Amino acid sequence: MIIEKLLLHVLIILAPILIQTSLLEHHRLGKSPVFIGILHGIAAFACLIFAYESFGLFWDFRYIPLVLSMLYGGRKAGLIVMVFIMAARIINGGDALLFGFISLCLAGLLPFLISNKFWSYTPKKRITFAVLLGFWPAFVMLGILLSFSLIRGIPLSGNIEMLTYVLIFGGIQVLGVGLAARLNEWMIEKSILREEIIKSEKLNTIGELAASIAHEVRNPLTVVKGFLQLMKKQVKGDHHEYLTIVLSELGRAEEIINDYLNFAKPEFEKVEDVNLREILTDVTLLMNAYALKEGVHLEVNSNEDVYLKTDRNKLKQAFINVIKNAIEATPSQGNVTVGVEVKGNLGIITIQDTGKGMTKEELSRIGTLFFTTKDRGTGLGTSVFKRIVEALDGVVHYESEVNNGTTVTVQIPIERKVNEVRKENAM
Q1: Which of 356, 350, 355, 354 is nearest to 398 (CA)?
Q2: What is the DSSP code (8-state) at residue 76?
Q3: Which of 70, 73, 90, 407 is the most exposed place for a label (fewest CB within 10 A)?
Q4: Tell me: the pLDDT tens digits for 176-211?
Q5: Span 53-81, mean pLDDT?
Q6: Alpha carbons 159 and 162: distance in angstroms, whole number
Q7: SS3 of 109, please?
Q8: Contact between 333 and 352 (Cβ < 8 Å)
Q9: In angstroms, rounded to a whole number, what is the distance separating the alpha carbons of residues 37 and 71?
Q10: Going by C-beta distance under 8 Å and a sequence separation of 6 or more, which residues neighbour residue 326?
Q11: Which of 178, 193, 86 is nearest to 133 (CA)?
Q12: Entry pTM
């Protein structure tokens, strides 16, 4: 009878996860800690109401929803589940009511203390961690069982039935926690995959749009700009100033169009051995005037010549975009520092500013289409930068803290160092 009851409890604890996955996958309510707590609280409540009573104790899986809510919903969700468990335990009553409250507090203590570290693990480790943590309430209940048995004078030695119950309870609990944790991770993985698919669709749409813009807009724009430049030479007075503004805005429109084109397909027209340190030095010299205008100190720190095969102009453009963003995010009298170092077969480039920084939400969206923290901007500059780096099999990583600046770290596989080039030239 106990096996049937406990298997029923496994289905009950899986129900909240299935509801989140099937009914509320696209709704913000499905990610609310309060709602998660209520769902798991109802499951814990049901487990207690349909508990199997034997030896004066209730055998149930009330603590599995508590552990899952603490790990996947946060402390607020876990505390809500504890309230549901207390209510159900009061309704059930019995001689071991005090022991039930003590068991609840002890069972929820460990998940509460370490729930914040849970998301630092990989998905596989999170499942293992959830299963191991699921043992904690079982140990607590075993301790409560021993204490209750000693106080009530229930004999433990030779009590095969109670030992069987304990083994069955522990085995099915491991199964329940493992299934629930795996289902949670599947839900998270599915959500991430859906976001990646949406992002990929957006990228394809922009690629098609960029190809159309190249033929339909850029050529007539160039003709208009050419005629306006001729008119500017002949016009004086206020009209001359107006033409200057028009040409400036046309130039900005050209830059946006070129960003779209480079984002759609960053083609490397002339691939050659490029000295990364020289590229960054040239870019900082080029951007220094802009930095001075904004009152920002710009410098590059590198003593190593690092070579890689790429298109020099595309690489310059990539770093111009990211350094320009760093300058614009930095207030007057601030600093932007560019550094280069070598770690194994990787060239590590860091662009660090002392600007306003970004929130966690802004940081998670950086590099996505049309997202920008600037008043005027399309967000394409950062996207182009990431696409060019990724085309070089590189990786971009952002670290930021509000009011403490942002650090952009770029890892690019290097072809060879300068001393290797010199050996080849000597031969």
Answers
A1: 350
A2: H
A3: 90
A4: 888 888 888 888 888 788 877 777 777 667 666 666
A5: 82
A6: 6
A7: helix
A8: no
A9: 11
A10: 336, 351, 352, 353, 355, 406, 408
A11: 178
A12: 0.51
